[in-house]
Structures are given as C-alpha cells and as structure tokens.
Amino acid sequence: MRFVASLRDETIDAFAAEDIQPRAYLLSSHRVTPAMLEAAARVRGLGLPLFAYNGLKKLIDGVIDTFAADAAVIRDAVHQIRREIGRVPRGSDIPRFPHPAPGHPPRPVPPTP
Fold first, then answer.
1. Backbone phi, then psi, for 68, in 5-degree steps?
2. Which residues does 99 contact at the CB level (< 8 Å), separation at least 6?
3. Distance CA 45, CA 18 (A)
4. Burial (Cβ within 10 Å: 0-12, 13-18, ≥19) of residue 11
5. pTM > 0.85: yes or no
6. CA distance 83 to 47
7. Do residues 48 and 24 lie in contact, with contact meaning Cβ atoms separated by under 8 Å?
8. For the chain, what is the largest distance between any 2 Cα atoms, rounded to a whole number of angstroms?
9. Where is this region: Disordered (predicted)?
10. What is the pLDDT of residues 61-110, one digit of tens each?
11. CB proximity list for 3: less than 8 A, separation 6 or greater
12. Total Cβ atoms within 10 A of residue 22
C-alpha cells in the first residue's frame, strides 16, 4: 500500500482492522501529546516511517494574524452589502476595494522560518 496516513488512534485502528498498514504515518507537530507520542512509538515498533508535518503552522498563523484586520474590514463591508440588497451578494454586487483595505496600512508578510 502506498498511502501515508495522519497519526491518530482512529487511523491506526482502521488500518489494523483491515490487517493492512499505510506506507508511513504523519505526526502533526502542533498536536504532539503524550498519547500521540505513545502512538508514534507503536508505529515505529511496527517498523513504519513516521514523519512530522504542519511545521508551517506558525507561519500560517502569522499570515492569518497579518491579514485578520484587513479581512475583517472586507467581511464587514460584504455583510453590509448583504443587508442592503437582502441576499447573498454576487461578485458584481461587491465593489473592488483599493489595496490595502480602507483605513489600514499594508502589513508585511511574516518571513519564512
């Protein structure tokens, strides 16, 4: 089997119930807990590779934080348009906002770690 699965109790149990194993497991680096470390040890005991993933979570969170205020301005404007026209706005109902969003200076994108 050439499938790589997320390391979770559910995936370990599902593959074991079918008497098959994925090619490897992925352990989310931001969800490491004692239970997940035990599961990782079981997987390694089976001789299967274990890879860390979601190492970019901090970068993704930084990008979300960087654009949250601008996105909120746009979201609020779209909600206002919806109230005014009484339905979900379509693309042509929404004016193009100048970049950056009104009242907000541009924000730098966080550097890659």
1. -60, -45
2. 106
3. 19
4. middle
5. no
6. 58
7. yes
8. 61
9. 85-113
10. 888 898 898 889 889 988 999 999 999 988 888 887 655 555 556 655 55
11. 22, 23
12. 20
